[in-house]
Amino acid sequence: MGKNRLTKMDKPFLFVGLDYDNPSKVVEFAEELAEVNDDRFGYKLNLDFIINSVLTGNCEPFEKIMGLGRPIFTDLKMWNGKRTMTSIVNELVKRDVSYFNIYALADKPFLEAVVNATQGTNTKALGVTVLTHYDNDYCQRMRGCSLPKAVRKDAETAYNAGCHGIILPGTMLSEVEDLPVEKLVPAVRPAWYGLTGDNWQKQETLVKDAIKGGANLLVCSSPIRKSENRKEALIKTLNEIY
């Protein structure tokens, strides 16, 4: 088992979003948090970080973060052809990445092809339902149904295709409580930070509410990343989870 592997969870696990587009800043942030001696958190890496590292021909930033020995969630939000996505997954498996994601809207045959590429490995596929950036009005306009119905439909598609888990707004956890899969909630806010009413994040959720609703994977970025003391912010957030 690789040193970056996330083992079976008894309690929720936190991924800290290293949300910078500059690879050097991402590495700096990761190394700073690595000084917190706690095995209850890992890192989320965005698509722009992966692309910026690859396009410059310098994989060193990614390798440095992997070398820190923490579980990694690559937030790629894939939706492409089977060959393309499977090829990407094969590379993630080689690098011992814990989680990646794919839009459930890609539909069952595409999801199944991607999930099949993880067979016999420890890398897990998460099906994305509705992003936390969207609300009920968006779903009515673009999906022709309510936000809860869109989340439920996408979650069922991901589950039936064999995805190991789903990604959904914390406000929608009650819609999928019966599905026996891992549930990742993005944009969680610790109590010390509070809900901001950010127009960009339509579906913010407090850490305690996400856990109460059944989430076992949490992603937090802004509250920690924007703090004056980021290590202290991480510790305070972890203390709200455990």
Task: Spell out the blueprint of helices and strands.
Layout: E1 13-17, H1 23-33, E2 41-46, H2 47-55, H3 60-66, E3 72-78, H4 82-94, E4 99-103, H5 108-116, E5 124-128, H6 136-143, H7 147-160, E6 165-167, E7 182-185, E8 188-189, E9 205-206, H8 207-212, E10 217-220, H9 222-225, H10 230-241
Parallel strand pairs: 1-2, 1-10, 2-3, 3-4, 4-5, 5-6, 6-7, 7-10, 8-9
Helix pairs in contact: 1-3, 4-5
Descriptive key words:
alpha/beta; single chain; 10 helices; 10 strands; globular
Number of strands: 10
The CATH superfamily bears the name Aldolase class I
- Cα-based radius of gyration, to the nearest Å: 17 Å
The helix fraction, in percent, is 25-40%
- Looking at the structure, the CATH topology is TIM Barrel
**Main beta-sheet strand count, sense and barrel state:** 8 strands, parallel, barrel
Molecular shape: globular
Write down the domain tally. 1
CATH class: Alpha Beta
